[in-house]
Specification:
single chain; 145 residues; mainly alpha
């Protein structure tokens, strides 16, 4: 119950701080943390998926060398990547799109980038198994090579 109320309040705070507001990045970060916490407590795929999308929006806004950048680019994003990578693989367009977003959260050489790349390749494999499109096999091979 408390986590739902907290998430609701952070979502409201974000709505009050549009993109040009100086505290918009902090509000994004707070909401990602609440969604990650709720995902850990309730194992909801929607929460960790939304957190990944919000991090994708947040990281380019973080100014290098700031405290927000250090906490957002550190354990915060790692927890979201790990949580998302532990979800079942979906071969839907949305599932593959979200796997690509998670992969983009891993800069070159990031310790979780290989796993995120493998998860994306597996999502293409799942879509191939469901629909039989040879393009999905090509994508899987390209991604996993």
């Amino acid at each position: 119950q408390d986590i739902d109320a907290t998430t609701f309040l952070f979502r409201d705070a974000l709505a009050l701080r549009p993109q040009r507001h100086p505290d918009h990045p902090l509000s994004l970060y707070n909401l990602t943390q609440a969604l990650n916490w709720r995902h850990c407590k309730k194992s909801t795929a929607a929460d960790i998926s939304e957190a990944a999308q919000l991090y994708h929006e947040l990281l380019p806004l973080c100014q290098e060398g700031t405290y927000l950048c250090s906490i957002a680019a550190g354990n915060g994003v790692d927890n979201v990547i790990i949580g998302f990578n532990n979800l079942p693989k979906y071969g839907s367009d949305e599932g593959i799109h979200l796997r690509r977003i998670v992969l983009e959260l891993c800069p070159l050489g990031h310790r979780l980038s290989h796993r995120a790349l493998d998860e994306l390749a597996q999502a293409f494999r799942v879509r191939f198994d469901q629909h039989g499109s040879i393009d999905d096999l090509r994508h899987e091979h390209t991604v996993s090579s």
